[in-house]
Write a structure and sequence with these properties.
Shape: globular
Distance between the termini: 37 Å
Helix content: 55-70%
Oligomer: single chain
Largest sheet: none
């Protein structure tokens, strides 16, 4: 009897391991989002070379787990950041929603790239936030072009391989 008569057996890709982010559970996904949200609330967010940890985490989980990133959750996280920063209500929420939407459009392609290739590809996505912030501040009459916003996007791109390495490594119990 040949192998074909038994039916087609789907084989997993050989590079898929237990450390692959596709196998991440909800506690790790939402816990990492809460930690990155907390990191964005600290006072160092105003430094020009500190990345936006929440947007990096949202992009990572949108690439690997798009079914678990809900738009209402992203909107709520953006509203809490708006409240903390004293920004126009909805400014960061809109930027995060656009980031998640565009990342979701490219998520299938981005999964097949190496981390450095992903970083280069998502640089325009990280540049959306400062562009929207500059546009919205122009619309509301207080146009201030802060180059720190753009350096944050570049730092997100530079730190993307390390951040994705940290997020893809889960702390598994001995029983797992």
């Amino acid at each position: 009897m040949s192998d074909y008569s038994e039916g087609y057996r789907q084989q997993a890709r050989p590079d898929k391991t237990i450390w692959d982010p596709i196998f991440a559970g909800p506690y790790w996904i939402y816990g990492s989002m809460a930690i990155s949200w907390t990191l964005d609330l600290f006072s160092w967010r105003d430094w020009p070379f500190m990345p936006n940890f929440l947007s990096m985490t949202l992009v990572f989980w949108t690439i690997y787990q798009p079914d678990r990133i809900y738009y209402w959750l992203v909107f709520l996280l953006g509203l809490t950041i708006d409240t903390d920063r004293g920004a126009v209500f909805g400014q960061n929420a809109l930027a995060l929603l656009v980031i998640v939407f565009l990342t979701e459009l490219m998520s299938q392609r981005l999964q097949w790239l190496q981390k450095v290739g992903q970083a280069i590809t998502i640089l325009p996505i990280f540049l959306i936030t400062p562009t929207l912030m500059a546009f919205e501040s122009f619309c509301f009459g207080s146009f201030q072009l802060d180059w720190g916003w753009f350096t944050k996007a570049l730092m997100c791109t530079v730190l993307w391989p390390a951040w994705s390495f940290v997020l893809s490594r889960r702390f598994l119990s001995a029983n797992s």
